Amino acid sequence: MTHYNNIAHLMDNFILPKPLGFGRVFLPIMFRARFAKGDWEPGELQAYAPLMLEPGAKVLHYGQSVFEGMKAFRVNHSNPHVFRPKCHWQRLNRSLTRLCMPDIPERLFFDGIAYITAYATEKIPPEHGQSLYLRPFVFATSPDLSLKNSTCYEFLVIASPSEIYHSGTMRVLIERDRCRAAVGGTGNIKAGGNYAAALHSARESEEKGFDQTLWLDPYSRNCIEELSGMNIFAVIDRSIHTPHLTGSILGGITRDSIIQLAKNIGYEVTETDMQIEALIEQIQSGQCTELFACGTATGISSISIIGEHDGKEYILPSASPVANHLKSRLMEIQHDKKDDQFGWCWTVADQYMPAELKQFITN
Ligand SMILES: *Cc1c(COP(=O)(O)O)cnc(C)c1O
């Protein structure tokens, strides 16, 4: 680790903007490690700054790029903590493996997220729903246009002090034409290209006054899968349903947390095929009382309407008791207001904390 003083100085001069928004402003520091000659270098904190990249770098041509999205929280009288970092590390490695990129060792991943979070301690926005959004990512840098694997990579962690991504209810447009992902493809990992493939539909949804695209399965176009960056749940006859992980759906860590929380509270949770036509009927008959989406950035967000391109709209009841219940339980754990009975929060270890900040915590 180099330039401690520099890094601390950069953080001292950083002012949280108002309003904060989501992912709009980045910390002035980042963590960076390079992979070359078959191994990862240790990595270090640096000033957040533009990167030098050869125009022939593979990532720019063949899309070898994967990422994670995770959150760190400021808590009282303790070092900040990070929500389920080991799950994010494991998922990052699954993404890397699928795109033929080298694994990130556990130590390197934790160094990256922990040093950033430790130096940011005083600048993590403390209010309910606010957090430090961490974005670890890896991309291929070998300048070579052959369709062969890259030999050089970079691992970076940047961070954005943020509010909840989507705080109100959401209007969701059913996409009956395009597909996001296929089984055997890359839909179940966080590969950059998946999100590029969703942008056209996102623009159409926005033009029609919707917030998000609802993707159907690529074969029958009959079963709901998820939104472009969030998983989806329905409350049907008082029990909770979510599409089972078919291989083209991204297995969200928030999705997993909700399933565990809901079962623990006493709800019945079913992971199953969910046909869009059946869901529409259940909304119309009143059997489906809630739809909600979830992901790290958003937490849990209720869906008020699902709509079709032809203008049909299906409206959900405005009360969302189940979503609200789960949301408050999840946030209580994340903000350290309730006992973390699942062991989901990882406190940044003392070894990462700069001395001045240790003082700040105990005061
Ligand atoms: C990241 C993501 C999610 C949510 O995953 P979390 O681990 O809960 O943040 C859901 N769907 C897609 C397509 C995603 O990229």
Please, could you describe this protein's structure?
- By secondary structure, this protein is an alpha+beta fold.
- The chain is 29% helix and 26% strand.
- The chain has 9 helices and 18 strands.
- It has helices at 4-12, 58-62, 85-98, 106-120, 192-207, 253-265, 276-285, 321-334, 355-362; strands spanning 29-36, 39-40, 44-47, 65-67, 70-73, 81-83, 131-140, 153-162, 170-175, 212-216, 224-226, 231-236, 239-243, 269-272, 288-295, 299-307, 313-315, 345-347.
- The strands form 2 sheets. Strands 1, 2, 3, 4, 5, 6, 7, 8 and 18 form a 9-stranded antiparallel sheet that branches. Strands 9, 10, 11, 12, 13, 14, 15, 16 and 17 form a 9-stranded mixed sheet that branches.
- Strand 12 and strand 13 (239-243) form a beta hairpin.
- It starts with a helix and ends with a helix.
- The model has no long low-confidence stretch (mean pLDDT 95).
- Bound molecules: pyridoxal-5'-phosphate.
- Pyridoxal-5'-phosphate is lined by residues 69, 190, 226, 229-231, 250, 252-255, 295-296.
